[in-house]
């Protein structure tokens, strides 16, 4: 699917003496010239103190993601020196991730082996660079017959640090690899054409991935969904030739401190159904399973990290198609557990499949439920393409999710579910309708709908990732075009926080 990720190792060595194709150093904005990060200062010595002025003459400003390439000066064993902008002195983890991502994208086709002499060499910095490298070098070539003509991605990266033998550095590196693998798996699933990734295939792949990670796997097919009353998922899926599935992956270590449930929307393609979308509205809708992909990948990472918390991922999967067998506006569905929903707009399908899974997951009385969904265009209107919305039934938990996201290098922002929102979903015939009249506050209305299916006393947060899950523009930092893997790092961070007793 995606091209093999570069291997990453750590080494203690002086930057000028490393024999690689490209040596990466960091620069930051300064008064007259760029200022040099510590690794860059070593190279500067070998150059007789002319690195900053040379880079400045080449136009370097030290801005985030700027990359300036220099042919190797005498005294440096690498073939190329790549100076990457850090945006400021003392870069934080996210600045290092973005710099690493930007530089590996730029070095594709130019270097096979790369060494980083960037940052302070502490475990956190090494891990941030590794994450940026592994996430930034992602490419998706499954459908390219001319992939060999594209710039070859780098194959081996060495991060230079004085602490190469530290246990903390080794552990941080292993964590970065597990997390990046989960993000890249999510991207692969999102990028795959919907003709190749429909519920049955997606469920089979989730099962294989879950088994490999040692998880308990359950896959409900149409018959099982009918027997158990998953009416939301069945209603959405009934218009498609491809039958729906619900997948459960569960990780349950012996002395689990908490139980977290992650629920992800898995619409493998969203045409809108009978409430058909215009063509432009469908162009990115293969990504409508990004939430499901994220929760499934995240639980495999949690298992690999052997965190002492139980995590269950639920992924309801369906294809939303218009056909003679499709559900119609006015149909009434019976969601898992018995609540009835009048479907007034078949394009508001995500909340229907999520309702089943949230209701079912609530029966297990977990400590928290976090659902992740490409749920509303309204959330993108509100927050743009890089920030997910956080809604829920507990303001403190919303803030906690936001903080956790920030620490992981993701951006989420709390939105309210104002009083009166639930009433806007009152139905003339059923317990509730799936949409309100009018378009105001669409993201909040959707959250209010989901809230109806969360079990009593369970803390719940809903992440609307419609914006950040898919990059329709060009690559930036470590974010490629197409599927981004949004929310995976936040979910793993939440499990880590729970393991640390912070939840
Ligand atoms: N999958 C879409 C939401 C979406 C839109 C995600 C654009 C990413 C980009 C969802 O199923 C949907 O169609 N939502 C409707 C809800 C409306 C009918 C109440 C929307 O946002 O228009
Ligand atoms: Mn829709
Ligand atoms: Zn959808």
What does this structure look like?
The chain has helices at residues 38-46, 51-57, 93-107, 123-136, 167-191, 199-212, 222-228, 231-237, 279-282, 290-304, 350-362, 377-383, 395-408, 442-451, 488-499, and strands at 7-11, 22-28, 35-36, 67-71, 80-85, 113-117, 156-160, 216-220, 245-251, 259-264, 266-270, 310-320, 332-334, 340-342, 368-373, 388-392, 412-414, 432-433, 459-464, 470-471, 482-483. With 503 residues, it is an alpha/beta fold. The chain folds into 2 domains: 7-160, Leucine Aminopeptidase, subunit E, domain 1 (3-Layer(aba) Sandwich); 180-499, 3-Layer(aba) Sandwich (Aminopeptidase), CATH 3.40.630.10. The strands form 4 sheets. Strands 8, 9, 10, 11, 12, 15, 16, 17 and 19 form a 9-stranded mixed β-sheet that branches. Strands 1, 2, 3, 4, 5, 6 and 7 form a 7-stranded mixed β-sheet that branches. A 3-stranded mixed β-sheet has the order 13-14-18. Strand 13 (332-334) and strand 14 form a beta hairpin. The longest helix is centred in the middle third of the chain and has 25 residues, at 167-191. The chain is elongated, with a radius of gyration of 24 Å. The structure holds ligand BES, manganese (II) ion and zinc ion. Manganese (II) ion (MN) is lined by residues 270, 272, 347, 349.
């Amino acid at each position: 699917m995606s091209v093999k990720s570069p291997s990453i190792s750590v080494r203690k060595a002086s930057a000028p003496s490393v024999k690689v194709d490209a040596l990466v150093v960091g620069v930051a904005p300064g008064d007259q010239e760029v200022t040099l990060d510590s690794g860059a200062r070593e190279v500067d010595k070998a150059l007789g103190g002319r690195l900053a002025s040379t880079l400045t003459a080449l136009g370097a400003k030290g801005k985030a993601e700027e990359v300036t390439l220099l042919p190797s000066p005498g005294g440096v064993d690498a073939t190329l020196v790549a100076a990457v902008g850090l945006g400021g002195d003392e870069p934080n983890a996210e600045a290092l991730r973005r710099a690493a991502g930007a530089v590996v994208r730029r070095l594709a086709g130019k270097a096979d082996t790369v060494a980083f002499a960037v940052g302070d060499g502490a475990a956190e910095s090494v891990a941030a660079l590794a994450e940026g490298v592994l996430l930034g070098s992602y490419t998706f070539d499954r459908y390219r017959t001319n992939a060999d003509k594209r710039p070859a991605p780098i194959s081996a990266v060495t991060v230079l640090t004085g602490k190469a033998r530290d246990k903390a550095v080794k552990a941080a590196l292993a964590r970065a690899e597990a997390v990046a693998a989960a993000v890249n798996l999510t991207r692969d699933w999102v990028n795959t054409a919907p003709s190749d990734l429909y519920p049955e295939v997606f469920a089979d792949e989730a099962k294989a991935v879950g088994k490999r990670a040692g998880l308990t796997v359950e896959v409900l097919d149409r018959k099982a969904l009918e027997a158990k009353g998953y009416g939301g998922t069945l209603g959405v899926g009934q218009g498609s030739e491809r039958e729906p599935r619900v997948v459960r992956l569960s990780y349950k270590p012996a002395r689990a401190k908490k139980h977290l449930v992650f629920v992800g929307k898995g619409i493998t393609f969203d045409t809108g159904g009978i409430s058909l979308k215009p063509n432009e509205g469908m162009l990115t809708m293969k990504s409508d399973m990004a939430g499901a992909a994220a929760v499934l990948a995240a639980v495999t990472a949690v298992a690999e990290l052997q965190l002492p918390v139980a995590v269950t991922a639920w992924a309801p999967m369906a294809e939303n198609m218009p056909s003679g067998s499709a559900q119609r506006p006015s149909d009434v569905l019976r969601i898992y557990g018995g609540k009835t929903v009048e479907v007034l707009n078949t394009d508001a399908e995500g909340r229907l499949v999520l309702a089943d899974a949230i209701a079912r997951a609530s029966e297990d009385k977990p400590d928290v439920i976090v659902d992740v969904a490409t749920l509303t265009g309204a959330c993108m209107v509100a927050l743009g393409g890089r920030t997910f919305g956080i809604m829920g039934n507990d303001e403190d938990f919303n803030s906690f999710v936001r903080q956790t996201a920030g620490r992981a290098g993701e951006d989420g922002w709390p939105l309210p579910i104002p009083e009166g929102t639930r009433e806007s979903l009152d139905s003339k015939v059923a317990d509730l309708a799936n949409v309100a009249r009018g378009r105001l506050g669409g993201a909040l209305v959707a959250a209010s709908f989901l809230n109806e299916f969360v079990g009593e006393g369970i803390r719940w947060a809903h992440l609307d990732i419609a914006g950040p899950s898919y990059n329709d523009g060009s690559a930036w930092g470590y974010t490629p075009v197409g599927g981004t893997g949004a929310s995976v790092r936040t979910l793993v961070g939440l499990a880590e926080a729970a393991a640390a007793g912070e939840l």
